[in-house]
Amino acid sequence: MNMITNHMPTAELQALDAAHHMHPFTDGAELAAKGVRIITKASGVTLTDSEGYEILDAMAGLWCVNIGYGRDELSDVAARQMKQLPYYNTFFQTSHVPAIALSARLAELAPGDLNHVFYAGSGSEANDTNMRLVRHYWAAKGKPDKKVIISRHNAYHGSTMAGASLGGMTPMHEQGGLPIPDVVHIGQPHWYAEGGDMSPEEFGLLRARELEAKIAELGEDKVAAFIAEPVQGAGGVVIPPSTYWPEIQRICDAHEILLIADEVICGFGRTGNWFGSQTFGIRPDIMTIAKGLSSGYVPIGGSIVCDEVANVVANAGDFNHGYTYSGHPVAAAVALENLRILEEEKIVDHVNDVAGPYLAEKWGQLADHPLVGEAKSVGLMATIALTPDKSSRANFASEAGMIGLRCRERCFANQLVMRHVGDRMIIAPPLVIKPAEIDTLVERAARSLDETYASIKSDGLL
Ligand code: PMP
Q: Which Gene3D superfamilies match (predicted)?
């Protein structure tokens, strides 16, 4: 076979991709017919595709490239670490400097007494760890029946069996008979979609109190933990009403259950603090981390665990769990360098003080568009809801997600990566985005909305 390189014609690369590459969350036949988009390089907030188009990546890859593309410091560190020690495991009473250094740094950064890190290769794996860890913890405390994990509808916690079960995505549950036993779901704090005539504050309390009702229904002696994203990401950037998290925290404090904050998206600056838990006043016992930990440059995830849980587990014999790549030295070294850049370049402050407020102002103006029912943001994650009727927050009569899909197509045509979740449009750009780039982002989003509006009007869908 000829060498396959960036210089091959796009059509040939697309044909090879269609023949041999199975894509995640994709209709394979549809993609093969259409031809995949091929990204060849990236710098800062900008991607370049195989046709030479430059595209503003308002999703930071998959919410992960927090420090932006093209930071040679990370590739230099990876090369140095590969030469020094490309691999060694952390099983069998062994460690290495990158895993030690990263753990100590994460313990410094994480709030409260979250001082212990168990590594995984991804966010999904880390949530698998969490599920086993909390059950093992309660069993070690003489409460083996405390096994149920309470999660929420429309949550996303990964794609493994445990991750997808913890998640509340119906299309994922429908494939393969999920959720696995002892995972249950309560309602989400999605006021715009489900709040009806209630105020957001009333609705936030109502949804939080479903947790207390579920604990009572199951029995506190059966419930191990509650897991939630501070802001649901893949669910559509669902920013909870202000009353929600304080009430959840009160309920977790009042009952003997663990609180797991899934910080895979919210962690490492996304909401304007190091962790979303700090933005929303959450005091978790365990945090799931991945994505922004390495800015996506290498795969790494993990669980940051509080003193109590770590100490009990440490004194309960072997924890029979771990991954070949737990604490991988190259991944750990790259993550540490990424954290250095985030800190030394004050990137989290940039989100909180500059880029977040600027995006809030500009993005908020999209609420005036005739197609937009709400435009909200926190830090550098933002959402707009598309609607045929602003006053009633109505859904389109057409199949759910069709208008969002159209809008996403217009965004691509306008050189903007914006994702759609049903008929919501969402963004989470690299945290290093500058105000002038936010101007470009919002201008392209507005143009795409105009074009979507015109096309659905002319097709009689409004
Ligand atoms: N948790 C959350 C909140 C996520 O957003 C994701 C990924 N989008 C995951 C877990 C799973 O992470 P990964 O894809 O690295 O397995």
A: Aspartate Aminotransferase, domain 1, Type I PLP-dependent aspartate aminotransferase-like (Major domain)
Residue 1: per-residue pLDDT:
66
CB atoms within 10 A of CB 261: 28
Domain count, the chain: 2
Cα 124 to averaged position of ligand 1 atoms, centre (Å): 6
Under 8 Å CB-to-CB from 13, ≥6 apart: which residues?
4, 38, 50
Residue whose structure tokens are 């750009």: 429
Alpha-carbon distances of 267 from 190, 270, 272, 276, 367, rounded to whole Å: 21, 6, 10, 6, 27
CA distance 306 to 142: 19
Chain centroid offset of residue 361 CA = 23
**pTM (2 d.p.):** 0.98
pLDDT digits (tens, 9 = 90+) for 394-425: 999 888 899 999 999 999 999 999 999 999 99
Q: What DSSP state is assigned to residue 67? A: T
Say if the ipTM goes beyond 0.95: yes
Cα 158 to averaged position of ligand 1 atoms, centre (Å): 5
- Please report, rounded to a whole number, the percentage of residues in the chain having pLDDT higher than 70: 100
Q: Which atom of ligand 1 is nearest to the CA of 127?
A: 10
Model confidence at 365: pLDDT above 90: yes
Q: What local confidence, expressed as pLDDT, does residue 316 receive?
A: 97
Ligand 1 pocket mutation, candidates 160, 166, 291, 293, criterion most atoms within 8 A of CB: 291
Residue 312 makes CB contacts below 8 A (sequence gap 6+) with 137, 140, 141
In terms of domains, do 356 and 339 share one?
no
Among residues 344, 365, 389, which one ends one of the domains? 344
Same structural domain for residues 309 and 423?
no
Task: Extract the tokens encoding 316.
Answer: 């309960």
Q: Cα-Cα-Cα-Cα dihedral of 153, 155, 157, 160, to 10°? A: 50
Whether 265 and 63 have beta carbons less than 8 Å apart is answered as yes
Report the C-alpha gap between 4 and 12 in whole angstroms. 9
Alpha carbons 255 and 211: distance in angstroms, whole number:
11
Domain with 175, as residue range(s), is: 72-344
At what angle are helices 307-314 and 123-140 packed, to 10 degrees? Answer: 70
Mean pLDDT of 200-224: 98
Residues with CB under 6 A from ligand 1: 62, 122-124, 127, 156-158, 163, 229, 233-234, 262, 264-265, 290, 301
CATH number for the domain harbouring residue 402: 3.90.1150.10
CB burial string 314-353: b at 16+ within 10 A, e below: eeeeeeeebbebbbbbbbbbbbbbbbebbeeeebbebbbe
Contact 106, 290 (CB under 8 A): no
